[in-house]
TrEMBL record:
Its EC number is 2.3.3.10. This is Hydroxymethylglutaryl-CoA synthase. GO terms for molecular function: hydroxymethylglutaryl-CoA synthase activity. GO terms for biological process: acetyl-CoA metabolic process. The keyword Acyltransferase applies. The active site is at E79, C111, H233. Residues 255-353 form the Hydroxymethylglutaryl-coenzyme A synthase C-terminal domain. Pfam families: HMG_CoA_synt_C, HMG_CoA_synt_N.
Amino acid sequence: MNIGIDKINFFTPNAYVDLVDVANARGIDPNKFTIGIGQNEMAQQPRTQDAYTMAANAAYPLMDEIEKEKIDLIIFGTESASDASKSGAVILQNLLGIQKYCRCYEIKQACYGATAGLMTAISHIHQHPESRVLVVGSDIARYGLATGGEVTQGAGAIAMIISANPSIMTFDEKTVAYSEDIYDFWRPNYSSTAFVDGKFSNEAYIRFFNETFHGYCEKYGTSLDDFGALLFHMPYTKMGLKALRSVLEEGSEETQERLTNHYEKAAMYTRRIGNLYTGSLYLSLISLLANDENISTEDTIGLFSYGSGAVGEFFTAKLVPGYEKHIHKEDYEALLNRRVRFTVEQYEDLFNQTWLEEDGCETYQCDFDDAPFQLEKICDHRRYYKGGK
């Protein structure tokens, strides 16, 4: 049975800060950000957007009445949840008007959460071939102002519908996962920003890629030359490139050129948005399919997912003939190009605002937020949303 991605989309809030502006404000050479880190812009979410509204806004264009009736499993990958008990998946089910006979839950394992959801969705479709599964990854990446990780922040969501006989991509279900208990990146419950051991985190990411990639090649008898493209979780675009370069010499010159060219296309949207955490790998997939005319349905595409703490997984897929009809580049470009450019002062002011964490009510408004779903208020420790069904 062919199982894979039938529909896919991403959402990012309609505000950003230019990283040249941030570099100048910090007294740093802008090339350190734009070349050394490989980032140009960083998404900013207004107070009317949280992890749940971003997920709904990513999934909304995929919905029609058939989807609302046939989806019977919603898996929400995030490390930006606002509730330690209630799942964002049930919020998403309600916002999108998906039928009630549906299993809904949330997954947390740093940036690996959406991939964990994808693997579970594939198993579900094997057991229930007529089912359709909604998998989302939605996050707000925060490290702190003027910190080493500041330039790798971001916000946004991806949404995928997984089904049998998909229209975009099929997974061959050959996969290798690797896990260790490490502290490369973590966020205790009492902290609104993450902690990261930068050098160790970079080393762990590349090591986990090599463990899973070479483990895959050994297990399934493949080599670098067998891959048409490699996709990576991208906390920032230079990070994935470092991982790619760690194995490039294992391939021919033609392979090295091909994989590098595809990587540049896959990195285009991350350069403009920043780190999506759970959605990052799949944003790179959308970027590749929207911007690379040289990718082929004959190519085997390798995907590396990584979640700090840590879990890595390498798996493979192939595109379905005609996939390009289901990739809407014009919509993606319109979403990015209509965003409001924040000043550094606006960005810092927004960063320092906190959510209501006591009795009472707080209402949120944003004149330039035109997304279909928005956070309206927090009242008596409950979140209320507008937009819908």
